[in-house]
UniProtKB/TrEMBL annotation:
The keyword Glycoprotein applies. Residues 123-354 form the Plant heme peroxidase family profile domain. Residues 354-374 are annotated as: Disordered. This is Peroxidase.
Amino acid sequence: MALNLLSALLLATVTTRFTSAAITKRVTCPTGETTTNAECCVLFPILDDIQANLFDGGECGEEVHESLRLTFHDAIGFSLSQGGGGADGSIITFGSVELAFAANAGVDDIVDAQTPFVNKYNISAGDFIQFAGAVGVSNCPGAPRLEFLLGRPAATAASPAGLIPEPQDSVDSILARFADAGFSSDEVVALLASHSVAAADLVDPTIPGSPFDSTPAVFDTQFFIETQLKGTAFPGLIAISTCCRETTHPVFRTSGNVGEAESPLAGEMRLQSDGLLARDSRTACTWQSFVVDQTGMQNQFKAAMAKMAILGQNKANLIDCSDVIPVPQGVTTTPHLPANKTMDDIEQACSTSRFPTLTTDPGPATSVPPVPSS
Ligand code: HEM
């Protein structure tokens, strides 16, 4: 018996040593950093360059928000029924086609900002878009450390039109579009945690930089709380016309604000699609589940992003370079109701469990400032 125990202990020690040796085996890159795979070394100079020169020294600002949005607009160009290369960089390589899609209004700014980096380094546009998104999000306190896989080949064709969801779309249409790309309704909600670090420039071009929650530089759960506040009735849909600010791209707005539902917080914008998804029976309970579950939100966002980032790619051909992505800081605040709001302002939508009880931020109600453009 004693002998058996001793051999078990010895085996455990040997296994632990063997496992930790396997886990800690790393290569040292010419630039001095270490990583598990030598082929990931090419990423460190790019990391330093984009942190300094694309993300203003490592901020969670407009370029990070736009880079995260770009990961989606490139990847979702994938359909189980219509084809499309997914996360292949076609939004840059075939920008003359894809940037003319109405749903890509405003995306040209970040494509213009990222293209010189793609040209400067030996990296495909598809890899660069997902790498910049993962690095950018790591600048947002509270974000998960996203997976990053390297090795997407160059895109061969533009994505078919009509694959990017728009804020005036119905929940039926949004869920059907995501299902056609392989995502469940729970994964749609998880991906929308991205709107925690987001703002709109063109939904209403008269108020650019309008954030979707009160903390657009922090990847926290406030987005899921604030979208559940009672707002005014969602506006009826207004026909889209080609109009307004930028002559080359149609925008959402005509005489009213298509795709926009009024947020009860001054300065904040609520997309109609986010407001509806927060209240639909298929998505409301998952939406509510994130309100006080930062870790669950992080984990599910990370998993859904990992899936989205390789849409259309063969995972077996990609190299795991996730350890190049910086580790984000944690959040320091707790989920709360904005000043002047009470639990009576919450519009209960999940039918199986109550919205968590939250305390109200002290002080008078203030206006949420716009995200500055750089
Ligand atoms: C139902 C699906 C979605 C719809 C209808 C939608 C729609 C929009 C719209 C209309 C904007 C504002 C664009 C502007 O006026 O500047 C926006 C911004 C943004 N979206 Fe989404 N989105 C969806 C899903 C996603 C997903 C899955 C991601 C990423 C994983 C994402 C990331 C972002 C980010 C980060 C921004 C902020 C960009 C900035 O601040 O410049 N969105 N989205």
